[in-house]
Specification:
The protein is of the alpha+beta class. It is 38% helix and 14% strand. Strand 1 (128-134) and strand 2 form a beta hairpin.
Length: 229
């Protein structure tokens, strides 16, 4: 029974979901655009009937600022409205981000120094051609997938390799690709491609330091094996 003078309230769960415009803005402007609170909202997806997603996101950020890795999930689960699923989603997003960006500013002094940051490509079923850009101190600027090919081949062009390197003012690059077949020996096409990239690097003034081929167990370095370098 409704008392006279008190309008009926229509409560919709849509009030507790992430605003569509946040998703649209991220799609149009990229993941650098949203605030930390909005990024948490994207991970959570929705709040609860009693706790709007904006309020829940603020509580999550407060916990993240005051906890360490070992007790983070437990602390997140103590937030009213989180639950195990949302707490694990936040923790998993943080861990995935750490793994995928742990290479930033890592110093590369030897070919083997690159392997920890690209080894996850070794388990893929198709060839991935990767470009690693370095600054003047040989610190990693970025690791990019240039091309994804078939089981035993990927097509690349020098412009695809050097475009971003020039934009980032890279002092040097290292290229890498995986061999799903498991054999790390370079093919004739690998050798030809490397020679072409070395010539392009000389012209553009962005040295190619090495070409590395990886599989699940080991790697092959053109530099260490003194091929073309």
């Amino acid at each position: 029974m409704l008392f006279k003078g008190f309008p009926k309230q229509n409560i919709s769960m849509n009030n507790y979901k992430i605003k569509p415009d946040i998703r649209e803005q991220v799609i149009n402007k990229g993941l650098n655009f949203p605030s930390d609170e909005e990024l948490v909202m994207l991970v959570l997806g929705s709040g609860t009937k009693n706790i709007p997603i904006e309020a829940l996101s603020k509580k999550v950020l407060n916990v993240l600022d005051g906890t360490n890795d070992e007790n983070r999930v437990t602390a997140l689960m103590k937030i009213k409205g989180m639950g195990t699923g949302k707490a694990l989603a936040i923790a998993a997003a943080l861990e995935l981000g750490r793994r995928r960006t742990g290479y930033l500013q890592a110093v590369i002094q030897h070919p083997k120094d690159v392997i920890p940051y690209i080894k996850h490509f070794s388990i893929t079923s198709r060839e991935h051609f990767i470009c690693i850009t370095l600054n003047g101190a040989h610190e990693i600027i970025q690791i990019r997938v240039i091309s994804v090919g078939t089981v035993n081949r990927t097509m690349i062009h020098p412009r695809e390799i050097f475009t971003e390197a020039l934009v980032e003012h890279a002092a040097a690059i290292i290229v890498c690709h995986n061999h799903p077949s498991g054999n790390c020996d370079p093919s004739p096409d690998d050798i030809k491609t490397t020679g072409t990239l070395i010539k392009a690097a000389d012209i553009l003034g962005v040295p190619l330091l090495d070409h590395i081929i990886i599989n699940k167990q080991t790697y092959f370095s053109f530099l260490e094996n003194k091929i073309l370098f």
